[in-house]
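Team,

Forwarding the record for the chain on the shared tracking sheet. I've put the sequence and predicted structure together so nobody has to dig through attachments.
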Amino acid sequence: MRNLIPNIPAEIDFGPKTYAVELVQELESSEHVRLNGNHLADWSKMRLDADLEEQHVYVVLWHEIIHAILTPPELNDENKIDELLLEAMVSAIAYGIVEVLDRNPDLVQYRGRRG
């Protein structure tokens, strides 16, 4: 599905992968629980619920990016960290990043001038 929300990238490059960013109608888990987003490392996808408000989409996208950063393949079923703790940490970081970037546009411009 083509991204319809302005400024949402179609892809995110991170590590050895390029993740496709997809907006999905009525996004659900395999257990049929409604999701705002999910990170599918095996398929190199970050999926976001297409019904989210535009403002919330950016937080959910950052949430999935942080999952990609914090969830290396070494964290398999035998040595997974607590899911509830991970979700709480990822959400806090995602909201924090979005707020810092929103309140400090010069920060993004500074990075652009350096690179």
